[in-house]
Write a structure and sequence with these properties.
Structural class of chain A: mainly alpha
Largest interface: A-B, 37 and 26 residues
Distance between the termini of chain B: 83 Å
Strand order of the largest sheet of chain A: 4-3-5
Oligomer: heterodimer
Number of domains of chain A: 1
Largest sheet of chain B: 3 strands, mixed
Shape of chain A: globular
Helix content of chain B: over 70%
Number of strands of chain B: 3
Order of helices and strands of chain B: EHHEEHHHHHHHHHHHHHHHHHHHHHH
Shape of chain B: globular
Number of helices of chain A: 21
Radius of gyration of chain A: 22 Å
Number of strands of chain A: 5
Chain lengths: 522, 654
Amino acid sequence: MISFLAQPGGLDALQAPEIDYWAMAPLLIVLGAACVGVLVEAFLAKPQRWPVQVILTVLTFAFAGLTLGLRLTKDPKGLTTVAGALSIDRPALFLWGTLLALGFGAMLMIADRSVEPGGSFVASAAIRPGTIQDRAQAGQHGMQTEVFPLALFALAGMMTFVAANDLLTMFIALEVMSLPLYLMCGLARRRRLISQEAALKYFLLGAFASAFFLYGLALLYGYAQSVKLADIAEATGGTDRSDTLLYAGFGLLLVGLLFKASVGPFHTWTPDVYQGAPTPVTAFMGACTKVAAFGAILRVLQVAFKASSWEWEYVLWAVAIVSMAIGAILGITQTDVKRMIAYSSIAHAGFLLLGSIALNHDGLSSTLFYLLTYGFTTLAAFGVVSLVRNADGEATHLSQWAGLAKRSPLVAAVFSFLLLALAGIPLTSGFIGKFVVFRAALAEGMGPLVVVALIASAVAAFFYLRVIVLMYFSEPAADGPAVSVPGAFTTAAITLGVVVTLLLGVLPGFALDWAGAAGFVF
Amino acid sequence: MTEHVAQATGIASWAWLLIAFPALGATILLLAGKKARGWGHLLGSATVIASFAVGLATFLDAVGRSPEERVRELHLFSWIPVQALQVDFGLRLDPLSLVFVLLITGVGSLIHIYSIGYMAHDQEHRVGKANEERSRFFAYLNLFVSAMLILVLGNGFVTLYFGWEGVGLASYLLIAFYQHRPAAATAAKKAFLMNRVGDLGLAIAIFIMFNRLGTTQYTEVFSRAGEFTQPELLAIALLLLLGACGKSGQFPLQAWLPDAMEGPTPVSALIHAATMVTAGVYLIARSNPIYNLTPDGRLGVVIIGTITLLIGCIVGCAYDDFKKVLAYSTVSQIGYMILAVGLGPIGYALGIMHLLTHGFFKAGLFLGAGSVMHGMNDEGNIRKMGGLRKHMPITFVTWTLGYLALIGFPFLSGYYSKDAIIEAAFSQEGWRAWVFGGAALLGAGLTAFYMTRLFLLVFMGEERWKKLKSADGRDYHPHESPLTMTVPMIILAIGSVAVGFLLSKGNTLATWLEPALGELQEGGHGPIPHEIVGWLVLALSALGALTAYLIHGRKSVAVERPLKVAFPIRAARNDLYANAINEAIFARPGTWLTRALVFVDNKGVDGVVLGSAALLQGSSSRLRRMQTGFVRSYALSMLVGSVIVMAALILVRF
C-alpha cells in the first residue's frame, strides 16, 4: 500500500518491496519485543509478569543496542529501504541511539518498585478512582505491567518516526508512538484523577493535532502527487503548481509536528500532562518524545522543504520566539516542579527549533547534539523529582523543596547540577548544546533570533536558580518531604543522566563528531 | 648602572632553594593541618634554617669573588610571556639582596626557634589544647619567609610586587592569628586596607615603567632610567614612596603598625620590626638609579622620613602598652632609615646599615617583650609591671643590651648606625641641614626618653604587680622563659652589641654594597662639624634618659594612667590623631563615594533590573491565566495558532 501511494500511477506495478532486515534490526527488535510483551501479559500469572518484563526489556535494549552498534561500523552514508519508506541514514542512527539510551533510562525508572512501593503504576487500572476499592489497591503491591509493552510500542513508533522517509509512514509512526503514551499517562498509582485527566487531555489534543497532520499530508499529496519527502522536495523545485496547496499543506503538517514537540503556541497540553502523568512516564515523554518529534521536524524541513525555505523561514522564527518567550516567562510563576520543567521544555523547544531552521549541516548536527544533551538532563531531573516524597506520594510543590539541601545534600547537589545544565552553565552539556545551536543559527544569519534566545535563556535561568536558592538558603518546612533512598534502577537512571550531562559538558568532541558524521539520505 | 649582569653559576645556581624550602614547608604544613601537631614546629624551623644555610653558602661564594662579579642573576622561568609584556621569574643575587637574605633567614631562624617555646605555652592556657594551632602558625611564618625572600631576591618589579603582596598576605594572616579576638581581626583588616593604599602606588609606578620602557626587569629599567622624563621620574619616585609608606608604616599610613601588635609577639618581632616593615627601605634603596635622577623625589622621601621619625618618638612617649611603645619605636627607626635612603648616594648604605642593626636589636627587644608578657600572664600594660629584673635575669640583661643599642649607647650597634644617619642629615646644605638634621637629633633625645621610661617601668622600681591580679583573675608569677626562647634572645643581644661595630669598621658594609648601591659618598660640610654632631647626639640622648629617670625612676608610678594631662600628651596618646586624619582623608570620602554609588545602584541599576523582573513576573502571572485547564480552550489556542501560522505562510506569497 505504501508503494502504491508512493508511486503515482503504480497500480499495475504493485510488487513486494525490498526490505533490508539487518539495517532495520534495532527497530524490529523493539517492535518484536513489544509484541512478546503483550503475549507475556496474556499468558503469565500476575506475580511473574514484572520480572519477565524487566528481563525482556533489558534483553531488548541489549540486542537493539548491539545491532545498532554493528550497523554504525559499516555503511557510512546510510540507505533507504522498504521501497524508500524508511531512511536508515546517519541522523536516523544517531537518533535511534539517543532514543534507545534515553528509553532504557526511562524504562529503568518505570521498572522501579522501591521508590514507590509496588511501582509508580496503578495495580488495576479499571477500578474507578476515589472508591473504596481504589484506596485498597493503592496499598497493593502489584502494578499494571502492560506499561512495559506499551512503552516499547511507543519507542518503536518513535524510532520509525525519525526514520520515516515519506509522510504516510510518518503518520503511522506518529500514531504508534502516541496511542501508548496516552494510555501510559493515565496509569498513575496515586492522584489517579489528575492522571486520567491528563491522559484524556493529551488524547483529545493529540487527536486534534493528528487531524492537522493528516490534512496537511492530503494537501501536500495534492500538490506533489506523492507523499515521499524527496518527491515533495522535487516538486517545490520549480513548477507551476498551486503554491497555496503547498503552503497550506506545509502549515498544517507543521502544526501536527510542533504539537508533538510541544513548541509554543501548540504547547498547551504539556504542563498539564507532565504534571498528571506518572513521573517515569513524564521522563519518557520529556526525553524521548522531544527527540522523536524534533528528529522528524529536522528531516521534513531539511529534506522536503529546504528549497522553499525563504517563504516559511520567518514564520518559524516567530514560532520559535513565541515558544521561548512562553517557556521562559510562564516558567517564572510556576509553583510545581514538574510544571516548571514542562515550561522549561517549551523554552528548550524554542532553542531546538532555532537549530532546526538553520538548514545546513551545522544546524543538523548541533540540533542532534542538543537533543542528546537535553534528553539525558531531563531524564535525570525527573528521576530526582520522583525521589522527593511525603505521605501522599511525590511532593512536587516547590514550597516543599525548601531547605532540601540540609536534609539531603546529595540529592540537592545533583538536582542543582541538572538545573544548571538546563540553564546552560559551562561545564555542563547544556552549555555546549546551546553554544553549538546558537553558533549554527548565527552562521545562517539568524542574529536577532539568537539575541532573543539569549535573553530567554537568561530569564529562564532565573527560575532554575530560584529552585537552587530555595533548596540551599531556605529553612526546611517542619512537615517537609523526605527523600527516598532510590533502588538500583532509579539510581542507575539518574546516574546515567548526570554522568552524560557532565561528560558531554567536559568532553563533547566525540558526540559532536557522531552527530555531524553525515547528512540525511532520501 | 649595571649594563651586563652575569648568570649565576656554581653554588649560586641553587639559590632558588632559598625560596623553595620555606614555600615547601608552608605547603606541607597547610595541607597536613592538625596532623602536623606533633612535628609542624620542627619542620617549620628546619626549612628556615636550611634556607639560612643556603643563604650563607651563597653569601660566602659571593664574598670570594671580585666586586664586579658579585651582581648575578639566576633565570628560573618565563613567568608572563604575553606579547609585549615579558616577565621573567628570576633571582637577582647581589650584595644588597644577599644581606637581606642573611637578615631574613638568620633572624627568621632565631624567631622560629623562639616561637616553638612561645606558641606552645601560648596555646596551652589560651585554648586549653596545646600545639593545636601551632603548626598553622608555623605554616604562616614559613609562607612569610618565602614571600619575603621573593620580594628581596626578585630580579624585576613584578616579581617584587608578587613578594610584596605575599608578605602582605602573611602579615594579614598572622596579625589575625588570634581570630577569637575582635581587636586582632580589626587590626588585620586595618593593616590590609592601609597596605592596599600603598600597593596601589607601587602598582601604578610599575605601570608607568612598563608604559615608557616596555619592561619591568631591574637591569633594563635601571640602565635605561635616563629615558624617563623628569615628571615621570618624580611620579615614579613618589609612587614608590607611597608603596614604601604603606608597607613600612610611614606617615601618613603609619597607623596600622601599632595595631598590628595584636598578633603573636614573634610575629611582631620578625615581620613588624625586623624584616617586612623594612621592605619600603629596600624598595627605595633598590631603586636608587631612579632616585639618583630626581632630587625632588628624594626630598619627598626625606620629608616623609623626618615627619615619621618624630611622630614615632612623640607617640612612643605616651603609650603604656609594652609592644605598642616598641611598635612606635619601630615606626620612628624606619623613619630614620627612610630619611637616610632619601639623602641619596650619601645615605643609601647608611639606611641599609641601620636596617640591619635595627633588625637585630629591635627583634631582640620584641622577643624580650614577649618573654616578659609570657611570664606576666600576657599582661602588656607596663604600669602593672616593675622590678622584673630579679625575676627574669636573662631577659633583663638581653633586653637592656638591646635598649642601650637602640638609644645609641657608645660602641653598641645603634651608636654607629644612627649617628651616621644624623651626621649625614646634617651634612646637607642650607635649611635642609637644620631642619632634617635637627629633627633627627631631637628624635635621638626623645628615643632615649621613651626607651628609658619603658626600661624603668618594666624592670626597675617597685613590684607593682604584686598587689594586682590579671584580667582572668590569676596572680602574677613572673618567671624566666624556657631555653628555646632565651637562646635566641641571647644571640640577638650579642648581635645588638657587635653588629654595628663590625659593619662600620673600615666601612665594611658600605664597600660591600657598592656594586648594588654605588659608592657611599661623603656628605658636604654642613653647618656643624661631624665630631660635634656626634657629641650632640650623645648629650641629647643622655638628657633624654636622665629626664626619664627624673620623672619615672625616683617616685612610684601610678597603676592607672592619669587622665588629666596636658594637650600634647593627650594628642600623643591618640596617635597624634592619625586615625582621625586617616578617617577624614580616606575613610569619609570613601564612605561618601560608596553611598553615592549605592544610591545610583539602588535607584538606577536596581530600578532597571527590578523593573524588568517585575514586568516579567507580571506578564507571567497574566499569561498564566490562559492555562485554564480546560481542553476546549487549549484546542482553541491551538486553532488560533494554526490559523495565524497558515495565514502567515500563505500571505507571505502576496
